[in-house]
Write a structure and sequence with these properties.
The chain has 693 residues and is of the alpha/beta class. The protein has 4 domains: 10-54, ADC-like domains (N-terminal domain of TfIIb, Single Sheet), CATH 2.20.25.90; 65-135 and 333-525, Rossmann fold; 139-328, Dimethylsulfoxide Reductase, domain 2, CATH 3.40.228; 577-689, Beta Barrel (Barwin-like endoglucanases). It is 29% helix and 18% strand. The strands form 8 sheets. It has a 7-stranded mixed sheet, with helices on one face. It has a 6-stranded mixed sheet with strand order 23-25-24-29-22-26. Helix 8 packs parallel to helix 14 and helix 11 (260-267) packs across helix 12. It is globular. The protein binds iron/sulfur cluster (SF4). GO terms for molecular function: 4 iron, 4 sulfur cluster binding; metal ion binding; molybdopterin cofactor binding; NADH dehydrogenase activity. InterPro entries: Asp_de-COase-like_dom_sf, MoPterin_dinucl-bd_dom, Mopterin_OxRdtase, Mopterin_OxRdtase_4Fe-4S_dom, Prok_molybdopt-oxidoreductase. This is Putative anaerobic dehydrogenase. Keywords: 4Fe-4S, Iron, Iron-sulfur, Metal-binding.
Length: 693
């Protein structure tokens, strides 16, 4: 591990974007260079290389904005803070604390995630807080908690993958979303053991030894078919299943009805390929099953991930050295962001808010009475959907999220935002969401502030201030602290210094599932590789979990019986295609940051729709034409990109673009009943030429 020691000329830090959190240095004059670190091994993708361009973007906000006479106009900090505190205080007094809601983000540092959750529950007293991670990782989190008793994206260091003989990647496209990750797949691919499950032939699928392209929304059935093959072909690890798990019989009763030939009819994946994957995983000394958004973002996302975990358990992979199951987290702090109290149902330390012991512990750290803490609130989409309704919140504070682009059925969400009495955002630039706000606070970003992030392995990383922010901006922590003081909170209850907040976070997380009690800035500055749980300062951290037992009280993992039901919307004569959404290499999430970087935007600057050439021709379209993609919720204008490898029943759109190019105008907000994650990945759509083109 490269020590993260200060250098006279450059500061060791990590990329502002995805969960790989590639290591880099940044000089005082904002020059970025890659840095040796186990996860990126000296690599950066084009987003990382160009990340310094965000710092001096001409689009940066440097003064608060307050809406007057319908227009956002510059204001001084005290005026903006006073206005927000007074409007929120008034709403709470008149309509109760749940009239104010808070929406956070999976890119916020651990400290911001923690202080935002505390601000909502203590300074505002509202139960109405959730965050955009609900859209990204919540199905894997729910499935991991069900199976193992705890959810850490990868319960092993990424470098363990180097020794893998077989890796099955389900709904993951790291060759575009986190390219330096791909080097960790080299071991499996050179041994012929890299399998990619994706309806699309993505750049990752191009590298695979075997690409399975199931019909959208049928990944669960595919996992059942492979599990069936494992059992039928005598590959079940019976002794491991008996000793280390419970619930196999109930899971098998369902999988027994999904023999590979039947699954071939459901998914389109041949029975032979299903058996090939079963035998590949069973025959490998070191084997991994890894899932990502493609498995998760469904109305049955939690069950789909459970089906793949069941397969891994049947083969004895989780808890076996050199093997396992993991989820590839997406957002920069997708892991830490879900551990410290931004979620509607959780308190810091990954504690459930309904657990009396958890409430007691956290209330003691916060210096409040346990019964003063609100209960669980609405999940992200439900919260946004309720805005401005009779029973819903009348004001919303948004930190680190651009929901107008990233939420499903996004025209409806923009409508809901417009009905609010009061919308407040903290933002780097005037994102599509901030453009609707009544007050916008201009805030610092990654290299301009201190903070910690927890990467996709559960390793806690220090991002240190390397450059001065533009005059006029403040940190999110300062904004939260200033607002709390104006709402009558003692100043020392809401500190604005990142390390001081982290010290409190340690105490709040102590004894919880995600235990940071032994992590300190000093240990991180010294370059220690700390993977949670780290229960004490003398504890070395936990790079590999589950070797001695799972986190359920009996130490055993759980099979979860799950059945295939398919997507909520299927093609029909009116909408004959499956539309699926995803990412492209130059852009990150809603594109609010990457669309500002000329070098990235010049590579991809507008939405396109990938389609099989025969389907395009049948629709009266050719490569490069402007098409209209229509679903039951809206329509998107996109340039046609003909791709021979596309399934003829599928079209694909990236979701990073604004206005009429928002792919989320199409997406279906039906929610997974367990994780409350929307079904971003599949809806029914049609493709027509755009009028006049
Ligand atoms: Fe690495 Fe992700 Fe940043 Fe690319 S976006 S440099 S993969 S952390």
């Amino acid at each position: 591990t490269a020590p993260q020691q200060p250098s006279p000329t450059a500061t060791a830090t990590h990329c502002p974007y995805c969960a790989l959190q590639c290591a880099m240095t940044i000089s005082k004059d904002a020059e970025v260079k890659p840095r040796q670190f186990p996860t990126n091994a000296g690599g950066l993708c084009q987003k990382g290389w160009t990340s310094a361009a965000l710092l001096d973007s001409p689009a940066r906000l440097t003064t608060p904005l307050v809406r007057r006479a319908g227009e956002l106009r510059p204001a001084c900090w005290s005026e903006a803070l006073d206005l927000v505190a007074s409007r929120l205080g008034q709403l709470v007094a008149e309509h109760g604390p749940d009239s104010v809601a808070v929406f956070g983000g999976g890119g916020l540092t651990n400290e911001k995630s923690y202080l935002l959750g505390k601000f909502a529950r203590v300074a505002l007293g509202t139960s109405q807080i959730d965050y955009n991670g609900r859209f990204c990782m919540s199905s894997a989190a729910a499935a991991g908690n069900r199976a193992f008793g705890v959810d850490r994206g990868l319960p092993f260091p990424l470098t363990d993958l180097a020794e893998a003989d077989a890796v099955v990647l389900v709904g993951a496209n790291p060759a575009e979303t986190m390219p330096p990750f791909v080097q960790h797949l080299r071991g499996a691919s050179t041994k012929g053991g890299l399998v990619v499950v994706d309806p699309r032939r993505t750049p990752t699928a191009e590298r695979a030894n075997l690409h399975l392209a199931p019909a959208p929304g049928t990944d669960l059935a595919l996992a059942l078919g492979i599990l069936h093959a494992v059992v039928a072909d005598g590959l079940l690890r019976e002794s491991v299943v008996a000793e280390r798990t419970t619930g196999f019989d109930a899971a098998w009763r369902i999988a027994a009805a999904y023999w590979p030939e039947r699954v071939e009819r459901i998914t389109g994946v041949s029975a032979a390929d299903q058996r090939r994957v079963a035998s590949l995983l069973a025959g490998a000394r070191n084997a991994y099953v890894l899932t990502a958004r493609g498995a998760e973002q469904h109305a049955t996302g939690a069950d789909t991930v459970s089906a793949w975990i069941n397969l891994a358990l049947a083969l004895g992979l989780p808890g076996r050295p050199g093997s396992g199951y993991g989820c590839l987290t997406g957002q920069g702090n997708g892991q830490g962001g879900r551990e410290h109290g931004q979620k509607a149902d959780q308190l810091p330390g990954y504690r459930m808010i309904t657990d009396p012991a958890a409430r007691q512990h956290v209330a003691a750290v916060w210096g409040v009475r346990p019964d003063s803490l609100p209960g669980p609130g609405r999940s992200a989409y439900e919260l946004l959907d309720a805005l401005g309704t009779d029973s819903g919140p009348r004001a919303l504070l948004v930190f680190g999220s651009n929901v107008v682009v990233s939420a499903p059925h996004s025209a409806h969400i923009a409508d809901r935002l417009s009905t609010l009495d009061f919308l407040v955002t903290a933002d780097l630039v005037l994102s599509e969401t901030s453009a609707l706000a009544d007050v916008v606070f201009p805030v610092t970003q990654w290299a301009e502030e201190d903070g910690t992030m927890t990467n996709l392995e559960g390793r806690i990383l220090l991002r240190r201030k390397a450059v001065d922010p533009p005059p006029g901006v403040r940190t999110d922590l300062e904004v939260i602290s200033d607002l709390a003081a104006r709402l009558g909170q003692p100043q020392d209850r809401f500190p604005a210094d990142a390390e001081t907040v982290f010290e409190e976070l340690r105490a709040a997380s102590a004894g919880g599932r995600a235990d940071y009690a032994g992590v300190s800035y000093d240990r991180l500055r010294a370059g220690e590789a700390l993977y949670w749980p780290v229960p004490s300062e003398s504890h070395p951290g936990t790079p590999r979990m589950f070797l001695d037992g799972f986190a359920h009280p009996d130490g055993k993992a759980r099979f979860v019986p799950v059945d295939h039901t398919g997507p909520a919307e299927r093609p029909d004569p009116e909408f004959p295609l499956y539309a699926i959404t995803g990412r492209v290499l130059p852009h990150y999430q809603s594109g609010a940051q990457t669309r500002l970087v000329d070098e990235l935007n010049s590579i991809v600057s507008q939405c396109h729709v990938e389609v099989h050439p025969d389907v395009a021709a049948r629709s009266g379209l050719r490569d490069g034409d402007l098409a209209l993609v229509t679903s039951r919720r809206g329509e998107v204008a996109a340039r046609v990109r003909c791709v021979d490898s596309m399934r003829p029943d599928v079209i694909f759109l990236p979701f990073h673009f604004p206005a009429e190019q928002r792919a989320n105008l199409l997406t279906n907000p039906v929610l997974d009943p367990v994780s409350r994650m929307p079904e971003f990945k599949v809806c029914a759509a049609r493709l027509t030429p755009k009028d006049g083109e």
